[in-house]
Design brief:
Blueprint: H1 2-10, H2 31-36, E1 41-45, E2 50-58, E3 62-66, E4 71-75, E5 81-84
Antiparallel strand pairs: 1-2, 1-5, 2-3, 3-4
């Protein structure tokens, strides 16, 4: 609210300010990003459907993906799509 008051006081023109974040539905594209998002919940597509789970650990060529029923080692080259939940 304070920012809005300052802007209203200093601007003579009407405008719209839109804020966004890369967090929602953010695609994970590199092994570096899998490392950054260790411990985070993701949607992962290996075959033709998404599975939800967590990135437990990121390694140089793969990462450990944990769902409710399993824990698997996934090679980055096998990932069709991955995004934060």
């Amino acid at each position: 609210k304070m920012i809005l008051l300052i802007l209203e006081a200093n601007l003579k023109y009407s405008f719209t300010l839109e804020l966004s974040t890369p967090g929602i539905d953010r695609k994970i594209k590199s092994d570096r990003e899998f490392k950054i998002f260790e411990g985070k919940k993701i949607k992962l597509m290996l075959d033709n459907e998404f599975e939800e789970g967590f990135i437990l650990e990121s390694k140089p060529e793969s990462f450990i993906f944990k769902t409710d029923s399993k824990e698997i080692n996934v090679f980055y080259s096998d990932v069709k799509k991955a995004k934060l939940v």
